[in-house]
Amino acid sequence: MAPQRPKGAGALDKDNRPALSPAPVPPRSTELYAALDLGTNSCRMLIAQPKGSGFQVVDSFSKSVQLGAGLEKTGRLSRGSMSRTIQALRICQQKLRRNKVVRMRLVATEACRRASNGAEFMRRIQRETGLRLDIIKPEEEAQLAVISCAPLVNRKTENLLVVDIGGGSTELVWIDISKVPKRDRAQAIMRLHSGFHQAITDVPAARVVDWISVPLGVATLRDQFMDVEDDAARFALMSWFFEENLSSFTPYQSAQPQENFQIVGTSGTVTTVAASHLNLRRYDRTKVDGLRMTSDQIDKVIRSYLDMGPVGRRNDPRIGQDRAVLIMSGAAILQALMRCWPTDRLSVADRGLREGLLYAQMSADGALEEGDY
Predict the structure, then answer these.
(1) Taking the chain, what is the end-to-end CA distance rounded to the nearest angstrom?
(2) For each successive 10 residues of the chain (373 residues), what is the average pLDDT?
(3) How far is CA 158 from the centre of its chain?
(4) Cα angle value 278/281/282 (rounded, 5°)
């Protein structure tokens, strides 16, 4: 499947039923918003309330449901993956009801876009859980990833590449903010929630030079090369294959920005590599989100993953068993990206689609205060 281009903490109990988490103490404010991201590998949700120019998380959920398992071979979502997803969504529905959330945006991405029974599954979800999910287009997925990363943009940055490595696809967006005053750059990027093609005004705006959605994420890229037995060879092939799929992206073809250029990477792959670099035995978001890593540091972590082999990666607490089967395909994508672009540093973002959905809803409602995000 060709890259798409623009035009113009719940669990299951021993009986496999949703296990309810203890009810959190609800905040006094009734201004609660929810964002749910049903991806190729995971189902994740945040419930939050506006606070200043950002938000405070009230409740959350994240579970690996492997919705895209078998999709590469059959073109359809399997019964098992759909059942796992329904169980996870029932927990989400209980959290939404318990917190009395009215404003919400619930979305599905690449697996449901590609599956021939994706739309049918959305109808089943609504029947069985009462939740209505929208299958969003790649452009909106890219927009949401971009605005979620706005707070991490350095004021000196003039050209920005946001990379969102998902389970089923990878979105890349190149943004020129050189004409925007330094103090306004994060807010200019946040305004992209209304679309990449901004109306021409007298106010300097962030300009999207190009974007691409490559239908290769950590799960889909892994599935492409599962028949390759040698660990190192499989990694090299995955990295090469991903780079081949970037050939039509403008910065890959032509002269690339050399100065004041920043890459922000958002994904489980990027945060896992960062946690390994920091040697975190227990994940700590406050140490990972916003961390800047050099290319050499990233390469050192990836080499250590290869040296471990599959068994070593499964037993490494910094990676975790759920992530172990996906980390090398994600690392192959990350290595290819760092090889292609003129920077020796990557900004790590522990944020993504859910945060973008929250910012977009709150911004549209005027619920956020002006100021630094």
Answers:
(1) 37
(2) 48 42 45 95 95 91 92 93 97 97 96 95 97 94 90 89 93 92 86 72 80 92 93 96 87 63 92 96 92 95 96 92 91 92 87 92 84 56
(3) 23
(4) 105
233-237, long-range: CB within 8 Å, 24+ apart, which pairs?
A: 234/328, 235/306, 235/328, 235/331, 235/332, 236/332
Residue ranges of the chain assigned to CATH 3.30.420.40:
11-137
User: Which pLDDT belongs to residue 255?
Assistant: 55
Residues in the chain: 373
Distance CA 20, CA 111 (A): 27
pLDDT of residue 4: 57
The residues, any chain, with a CB within 8 Å of residue 129's CB and separated by 6 or more, are 86, 89, 90, 92, 93
For 263, the 3-state DSSP assignment is strand
Domain boundaries 11-137, CATH class? alpha beta
Specify the DSSP class assigned to residue 25. P
Query: CATH 3.30.420.150: which residues of the chain?
Result: 140-353
pTM of the model: 0.83
Measured between alpha carbons, how far is 114 from 81 in angstroms, rounded to an integer?
15
Q: Which residues contact 304 (CB under 8 A, 6 or more apart)?
A: 276
pLDDT for position 3: 58
For residues 48 and 246, give the distance between their C-alpha atoms in angstroms, rounded to a whole number: 36
334 contacts: CB under 8 Å, gap ≥ 6 = 165, 265, 269, 270, 273, 298, 302, 346
Give domain 140-353's CATH architecture: 2-Layer Sandwich (3.30)
Question: Could you give the dihedral angle defined by the CA atoms of residues 223, 228, 231 and 236, in that order, rounded to the nearest 10 degrees?
Answer: -80
Task: With beta carbons less than 8 A apart as the criterion, state whether 32 and 51 touch.
Answer: no
Residue ranges with strand state E in the chain: 11-12, 18-19, 33-38, 42-51, 54-64, 103-108, 134-135, 159-165, 170-176, 207-214, 261-266, 292-294, 345-349
SS3 call for 135 = strand
**DSSP code, position 200:** P
Report d(CA 129, CA 94) in Å as an integer.
Answer: 9
Quote the DSSP letter at residue 4: B
Q: What is the pLDDT of residue 13?
A: 43
